[in-house]
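Handout, section B. The chain below has 96 residues.
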Amino acid sequence: MVIDKQTVHKVADLARIEIKDSEVDHLTKEMNKILTFMEKLNELDTEGVKPLVYMNEEANVWREDVAKNEISVKDGLKNAALHNERFFMVPKIIEK
């Protein structure tokens, strides 16, 4: 498969990115280099090679997800710059 200018524009459209006409030639060359590299990889014999899903084969150790009240509201708010009896007070950043 060879990438042409029309394909570059189609890929840019699918990716919702804007490209300048001056960039199309460079992108065409770069995308063709990528495809050439992928064709080289397809030549490799991967018979008997397990697919790599995770970098290590260790199984994750799950713990029971139990809600605990380990800190009181008073202790949680003691270092807050601004707060009321139960909540942190932060400046408003979104205007209506």
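Note. The chain has three helices and no strands. Compare this with the example in section A.
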